[in-house]
Amino acid sequence: MIVSLLIIGILFVLVITTYNRLIRLRNNAREGWSGIDVQLKRRADLVPNLVTTVKGYATHERQLLEEITNLRNQSLLGQTVPDQAKTASELGRSLKRLMFIAEAYPDLKADGNFLKLQQQLSEIEDYLQKSRRYYNGTVRELNIKIESFPSNIIARIFGFAKFDFFALSDESDRMVPEINLS
């Protein structure tokens, strides 16, 4: 009888500790996503100012500016993690193209507002990269716990689901963007 109660007690403690660990990991992943979301919104908020500044100098780059504006609007919509990652990658590529095009306009490159926007974009991209790493690390830990025995049993009982990684959809996204501030 005492042995049975001891085994039940140990199992009960195991379930509670595993459940609490899964809760902590899930909340860390949500916090990580929140960090990405904040940086994506900061970048989206910067885009209209950047487009307006470039528009004054590069009037014949209209198609790219419209593409950036459309991607910016799309990035503000509620999306799944893979969809958000795809949109973020496309917006990042378009912004890189915009920075390369800006090199052809000496007056634009010298514009104080444009330089400030470039600096802000560079900082946001750095924070975004750090947020992606944190998020993916917390998702990795959560997913391992959800898939590992015996925590997978507890995860299944309490309805814990794996999170998606914030994966880069294009190999060129793995390259560090070059932003010339001179």
Automatic annotation (TrEMBL):
Topology of this chain in the membrane: Single-pass membrane protein
SUPFAM superfamilies hit by this protein: LemA-like
Superkingdom field: Bacteria
Subcellular location: Membrane
Stated name of the protein: LemA protein
UniProt keyword Heme present: no
PANTHER family noted in UniProt: MEMBRANE PROTEIN, PROTEIN LEMA
Keywords (A to Z) from UniProt: Membrane, Transmembrane, Transmembrane helix
Pfam families in alphabetical order: LemA
Family: Belongs to the LemA family.
A single Gene Ontology CC term: membrane
Membrane-crossing residue ranges in chain numbering: 6-23
UniProt keyword Nucleus present: no
